[in-house]
Write a structure and sequence with these properties.
single chain, Rossmann fold, Tyrosyl-Transfer RNA Synthetase, 3-stranded parallel beta sheet, two-stranded parallel sheet, binds adenosine-5'-triphosphate, binds magnesium ion
């Protein structure tokens, strides 16, 4: 691809918090799209290590290991450093500059209404003792995104409130500091002189994949999450996958193969629908499960095969990168240098718009 063509490609930004390894939820929610969109977009993938401190400031070694894990996962799933930029949040200081400025554009009560923040406080058991920095992280995320002025942001459903706030900050900044009219359409902001695009959210084919654990007290299945001990990781070996599937939550009322089973709200079938390439079998087997004419063992065995087929090539590629850690870290260093150039250029433009350039 020629340089000019590359420069003309629209930009894409997204990322992950290094609180563990990538799992199937990341795959269907966002990572699959990232791999597919690499040719059409100038892609930036952020490892949000500052944000990892919001819930585990007491565990720096763990965060360090997770940064390496996420980096290995990116390369193993097929994020190609020749086409895409992978970078580390804490080494791009313009992101912190922008976080501070943007925090002035978000009313505090607005932040506290963010439903994802409420869900995370509940599901991660943060109680009343969450840090001030935890509340700040969605603002940090606004800065992570807008610093790259991307057109699209591929994420899972839980990120929609954060993306809505990102869109609000972009509009507000453009109106306050760039003279964009308050009635301007979102898509016209850049043409009207706005600095920041009102970004588009791109959801994956499964917006919120559930985990393999029990439902919560209200009877809702929790999302698969690195922090909730309910994930199947893209680096799990076949034995681990088999163990997790065999002991996963299914319909608790179905005690034997001849009992009628419920397909709805049942991770066994949610996973078959999301990952099994043989959807004709899935439709037929779901019917038999409802009627009580198919055993759990057969359905789980199929699911194990499907997941091993998906994950094993990723795990094998990961092993190769694990044995070349120096090369892998060099990819992060180079990506971070490139990201720094882009983000500091944006921060400078933002400061110019805010009349804060003096020398
Ligand atoms: P943590 O438990 O630390 O919050 P996480 O598993 O939620 O970790 P994140 O790093 O917060 O992962 O999310 C990275 C991206 O993956 C986000 O775009 C998020 O929406 C998406 N994602 C995470 N989990 C899922 C899921 N279960 N289904 C769909 N998308 C998901
Ligand atoms: Mg999360």
């Amino acid at each position: 691809m020629t340089k000019i063509k590359e420069l003309m490609k629209p930009r894409l930004l997204t990322g992950d918090t290094p609180t563990g390894r990538l799992h199937l939820g990341h795959w269907v929610g966002s990572v699959e799209n990232r791999v597919l969109l690499q040719d059409d977009y100038d892609c930036y993938f952020l490892i949000a290590n500052i944000h990892a401190f919001t819930t585990r400031a007491d565990r720096p070694e763990e965060i360090h290991q997770s940064v390496v894990d996420i980096l290995l996962d990116y390369l193993a799933v097929g994020i190609d450093p020749k086409r895409s930029t992978i970078f580390l949040q804490s080494e791009v200081s313009a992101l912190s500059d922008l976080t501070y400025f943007f925090s002035m554009l978000i009313p505090f009560p607005r932040l506290m209404r963010n439903p994802t923040i409420k869900d995370e406080i509940r599901d991660k058991g943060l109680g009343d003792n969450y840090s001030f920095g935890f509340l700040l992280y969605p603002v940090g995320q606004v800065a992570d995104i807008l610093a790259f002025r991307p057109q699209i942001v591929p994420v899972g459903e839980d990120q929609i409130p954060h993306l809505e706030m990102t869109r609000e900050v972009a509009r507000r900044f453009n109106q306050l500091y760039c003279g964009v009219d308050s009635h301007a359409e979102d898509q016209d902001h850049l043409a009207l002189g706005g600095l920041f695009p009102v970004v588009e959210v791109k959801l994956g084919r499964s917006r919120r994949l559930v985990g393999i654990g029990q439902p919560n007290a209200e009877g809702n299945l929790l999302k698969m999450s690195k922090s909730l001990n309910n994930a199947i990781f893209l680096s799990d070996d076949p034995d681990t996958i088999a163990k997790k599937i065999k002991s996963m939550y299914t319909d608790p009322k179905r005690l034997k193969a001849t009992d009628k089973g419920s397909v709805e709200n049942n991770p066994l079938w949610i996973f078959h629908e999301a990952f099994n390439p043989d959807q004709a079998w899935v439709t037929e087997a779901e019917q038999r499960y409802r009627e009580g004419t198919i055993g759990d063992v057969e359905c789980k065995k199929r699911l194990i095969e499907v997941l091993v087929d998906l994950i094993e090539p990723i795990r094998q590629r990961r092993l190769v990168y694990e044995n070349n850690l120096d090369q892998v870290l060099a990819i992060l260093r180079e990506g971070t240098a490139k990201a720094n150039d882009v983000a500091s250029a944006t921060a400078k433009l933002a400061k110019a718009a805010m009349k804060q350039l003096y020398f």
